[in-house]
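Hi team, as promised in this morning's meeting, here are the two structures we talked about. I've kept the exact order from the run log so nobody has to guess. The first one is mostly here for context; it's the second one we should focus on when we meet again. Sequence first, then the predicted structure tokens.
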Amino acid sequence: MKTYKETQKFDQWWLRLLLAGVLIVSILPLYMMYREDGFDQDYNWVIFLTVGITFVVVILFFLLRLETKINAQGIHYRFFPLPEKQIPWQDIEECYVRQYSPLKEFGGWGVRFGLNGKAYNVKGNKGIQLVLKSSKKILIGTQNETEVKNVINSYKDNIK
């Protein structure tokens, strides 16, 4: 049987540009005060804390990734740095690839909760829709619609 693996990152050019802009805007006041020798010792910690938090958030965006693996045991997914989750085939009622609207259905990208269940997505509008026997719905984004469909179809007999 086939094993499918996919890793997706937030690597859209416009997101990188936005994050770079946010980082520059947060560092700019620090640079200007340093040049003008206008540091007020009482408020240094606020400026450094703001720049530090912004820097951590920007780095986190570059580290975030969605990892998906489909094999004979089931569907495994992980939104790094969160722990990996596995859904065995026997727990799945339905499994198929579908088109969705990230903004309308889930309010955006990332780990999201919506009326249609939970979504793990990074980019695009295609995803693996899982309907579990417990009636929970999970959508896992994918960039390889055709390949995922083929792998899921090869495991259809495992879904009971």
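And here is the second protein, the one for discussion:
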Amino acid sequence: MDDVVKALGNTMGKRGMSREDQEKLAEWILSFFGYTDEVIDNKLTSEDRDVFYWLEEEGFLTTTQEEVHLKKGKLWRIHYWILKKDQILRMAHQAEEGAGGPEDPSTVYNNMNDEMWKARER
């Protein structure tokens, strides 16, 4: 919950969303996902879906779909919304990283682990 609020603060908060609204939105988001990282689209109302599309544009969510063949030969598509946990953690802690934000090329190099550097040397 804290990381989602921080991520919202570092994104929407910088565009004027109040801390109280950030906390309410974080609670609302997590009420859908609970302890999982995906939600089936059928559970959403059209208003919920609009907010999910907005959150997708902001980098908090992504979508995927699964195709299932029914016994009658029909194809059934199931759409899912996926919580981008890694991205949310990055957004939550971007202010703690110092001056090097996502636009700063040095951020890429600072976030590379030893295995990446070794692979680069080959």
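Starting points for discussion:
The two ends are 41 Å apart (CA to CA).
DSSP finds six helices and three strands in the chain.
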